[in-house]
Amino acid sequence: MAKMKIKKNDLVQVIAGKDKGLQGRVIAVNTDTDRVLVEGVNRITKHTRAGGDRGVSTGGIQVQEAAVHVSNVMVVDPEDKRPTRVRTRVETVEQEDGRTKTVRSRVAVRSGKDL
């Protein structure tokens, strides 16, 4: 399983499916199923029952987001607000005690800006 390049609170754009073109923030990332939950995207209606042992006193219809596969979203470039691929930049920084430290940062391919 490949590493996911999308993290929580990233601004992403949907590139495939019924919500193609919409942008939103990532609410949650599920690495087991390779799915992300995006704010305002893939909205579904959920019917809930009233009462029961869970303490819910009223039932009704709730509208909430459903998960989207990670291959259907791309990170939005902070400079021009268009979708971009993500690359990892590896830098070695020398510390004060003489040792070196490896620092990895995510970079937008389109503009080269840090994410």
From TrEMBL:
NCBIfam families: rplX_bact (TIGR01079). HAMAP family: Ribosomal_uL24_B. Keywords: Ribonucleoprotein, Ribosomal protein, RNA-binding, rRNA-binding. Part of the 50S ribosomal subunit. This is Large ribosomal subunit protein uL24. InterPro entries: KOW, Rib_uL2_dom2, Ribosomal_uL24, Ribosomal_uL24_C, Ribosomal_uL24_CS, Ribosomal_uL24_KOW, Translation_prot_SH3-like_sf. The lineage of its organism: Bacteria, Bacillati, Actinomycetota, Actinomycetes, Micrococcales. One of two assembly initiator proteins, it binds directly to the 5'-end of the 23S rRNA, where it nucleates assembly of the 50S subunit. It comes from the Bacteria. Belongs to the universal ribosomal protein uL24 family. Residues 80-100 have a biased composition (Basic and acidic residues). GO terms for cellular component: ribosome. Residues 80-115 are annotated as: Disordered. SMART domains: KOW. Residues 5-32 form the KOW domain. Pfam families: KOW, ribosomal_L24.
